[in-house]
Each structure stands twice: as structure tokens, then as C-alpha cells.
Design goal:
- The chain has one domain: Pnp Oxidase, Chain A (Roll).
- By secondary structure, it is α+β, with helices and mostly antiparallel strands.
- The protein contains three helices and seven strands; from the N terminus they run αβββαββαββ.
């Protein structure tokens, strides 16, 4: 993965994940941490939420990470696809350690932890030239 992509993901903290069941799409925003070595996005969310119940049913996830900007010349963001992960007990500990390391305040409201194994990324970075695209595929 190009360092510009991995650095951008690591520097940000909110993703939008899209799910779909019975051809009906749905989106949700989540705080996340990035495991660069395993190419995972790790996040907390209650099991009863629509995006989690749908992700359990259909593990194919799409999403975005972007930065708010005021001019077209500074647009940066990416779209991704991946697979929803329900971590086993051993992986949960690693996920929680990573997540609470970045967001210690999240311990105040314990929630189940999940992951998205990234499969593809297309990043647009106009700071590298208008319409510049960087791509990555697992």
C-alpha cells in the first residue's frame, strides 16, 4: 500500500461504512483505528445497530474516509471495499488495545468491537495534482 494512502487512513478517525441487504443500502459513521500491518479498520458499535446487523448478514462492506476542505485544490479522500470481521476472543483483545489506545474515552461506554479487512482502495488527492488517484488492491 502506498504510504500516502496508509498515512492518510492513520491520520483520520471517522469512516462511513455502507452495508446492503436485499438491495437496500445503508450508511453509518464510526470512529476507527487503522491496523496498517493487517490492513484493518477497527471500530466499536452496538450489535443492535442497523449497520452491524446488516454487516453480519452481508459481510461485503464499502465505505469512505474523507477530509473536510474549503477548496477543490485540497480535496483528499478515499473509497474502500472490504469484508466485515467479527473477531474471535484473541483478536478482540488486540482490537480493543488498539482502539482504546487511540480513543481512551470510549471505555466509558463499553461496546462490541469489529473490523473491516480492506480489499480495495481508491484515493483522490488533489494536493498531488488535480484529480490524482492512488489505488491499492489486496
Amino acid at each position: 500500500m502506498d504510504k500516502k494512502i496508509s498515512n492518510y487512513i492513520a491520520e483520520n478517525k471517522v469512516l462511513t461504512m455502507a452495508t446492503a441487504v436485499n438491495n437496500v443500502p445503508y450508511c453509518a459513521n464510526c470512529f476507527y483505528v487503522f491496523d496498517d500491518e493487517k490492513k484493518l479498520l477497527i471500530f466499536l458499535s452496538d450489535e443492535s445497530t442497523r449497520h452491524i446487523t446488516e454487516a453480519i448478514e452481508n459481510k461485503n462492506i464499502a465505505g469512505t474516509i474523507n477530509t473536510e476542505v474549503t477548496t477543490v485544490a485540497k480535496i483528499k479522500g478515499l473509497q474502500f471495499t472490504g469484508e466485515f470481521i467479527q473477531p474471535n476472543e484473541a483478536a478482540q483483545k488486540l482490537f480493543y488495545d488498539a482502539y482504546y489506545g487511540k480513543f481512551p474515552f470510549a471505555k466509558a461506554k463499553p461496546s462490541p468491537i469489529w473490523g473491516i479487512a480492506l480489499h480495495t482502495i481508491k484515493m483522490t488527492d488533489n494536493t498531488l495534482g488535480f484529480g490524482k488517484k492512488l489505488k491499492w488492491e489486496k
